[in-house]
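Dear colleagues,

For the upcoming journal club I promised to circulate an example of a predicted protein-ligand complex. I picked one with zinc ion because it came up in last month's discussion. The inputs are reproduced below in full, followed by the predicted structure.
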Amino acid sequence: MPECASCSAPVQPKWKFCVYCGEPTSADASRPAPLVTPRTNPVAILALILAAIGGAPALIFGHVAMRQIKETGERGLLIARISTVLGYIWLVVWGIVLYSLLTNGQ
Ligand SMILES: [Zn+2]
């Protein structure tokens, strides 16, 4: 297991930051430690907006947001989950609407 260069604590390879001292553990980690200042994932917010206006693509954005949140430790996992569920519901609703429009004309 790799060690933190700053405090020598054992760190997971997937961690971008040391959870003990907040120092970046990889060269590409240039943002502040997510445990100190977690921000809400912008894709999750976009998914929620889409879900609120009846957009089925919310489920795609919700999935992307959940994956990003698991990687970055950002806030918004609940928002992403709700948006994904709403996206699936909208997909079913629009499917029913489209089906009834196509079948009622005959
Ligand atoms: Zn450390």
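Two points we might discuss: The mean pLDDT is 88. The first helix runs from residue 42 to 52.

See you all on Thursday,
B. R.
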